[in-house]
Automatic annotation (TrEMBL):
Main location: membrane
A GO cellular-component term linked to this record: membrane
Protein name: Mechanosensitive ion channel
UniProt source species: Subsaximicrobium wynnwilliamsii
Swiss-Prot/TrEMBL keywords: Membrane, Transmembrane, Transmembrane helix
A molecular-function term among this protein's GO annotations: mechanosensitive monoatomic ion channel activity
Residues covered by the Mechanosensitive ion channel MscS domain: 100-165
InterPro entries according to UniProt: LSM_dom_sf, MscS_archaea/bacteria_type, MscS_beta-dom_sf, MscS_channel_2nd
Length: 184
């Protein structure tokens, strides 16, 4: 009996919530499909594609929470107090770890517009520490490069976007395997 009274009292909100959630699930499905299509078209590593899809899912989840709060009658003034408090805490935390946020943002930018892919040999023109190596992996925070001597170098994504980079050889990882070396 109580459930029926609860349902009748919030029937409009529950229906709107259903439509909002269906719409956001559809947006998530379409967005993830587009990201996967772009990733496969540009020969991007499957792990990077999944990471970007996860970012989209989290963003849509947070948007769903905001919309649901409005649907169920939370006043905008109350939401503004809550969000300003949350953003103040997040802002202080992100200021303390700005380089991590910078690397994640760079990783997202590199997903869509990075001209090099896993297996390419590149040279990073860094005044203090120039690097030449084969890209083994591109992750959310860093790039893994294998130098000619076999050393593995992790290079932050934000520096990849700040430094000049030259393509030395396309698909160099194939040539390394052809020579019989197991350095990679």
């Amino acid at each position: 009996m109580r459930f029926i009274m609860f349902y009748e009292g919030l029937q409009k909100e529950l229906i709107i919530s259903g439509f909002v959630l269906l719409f956001l699930l559809l947006v998530r499905f379409i967005t993830n499909a587009v990201i996967r299509k772009i990733g496969k078209k540009n020969n991007i590593n499957e792990a990077r594609i999944k990471l970007i899809c996860r970012y989209v899912s989290v963003t849509l989840f947070l948007l769903a929470i905001l919309i649901e709060a409005i649907v169920f009658g939370v006043a905008l003034k109350e939401l503004s107090v809550i969000f300003s408090s949350i953003f103040a805490v997040i802002g202080i935390g992100l200021f303390a770890i700005w380089s991590i946020l910078s690397n994640v943002t760079s990783g997202i930018i590199m997903f869509f517009s990075f001209p090099y892919k896993v297996g390419d040999k590149i040279r990073i023109h860094d005044k203090d520490f120039p690097i030449e190596g084969i890209i083994e992996d591109i992750q959310a925070f860093q790039l893994h490069l294998r130098e000619n001597n076999g050393d593995l170098v992790t290079y932050p994504n934000n520096l990849m976007l700040q430094k000049a980079v030259t393509l030395v050889q396309k698909d160099a990882i194939v040539d390394v395997f052809d020579e019989g070396s197991d350095a990679v």
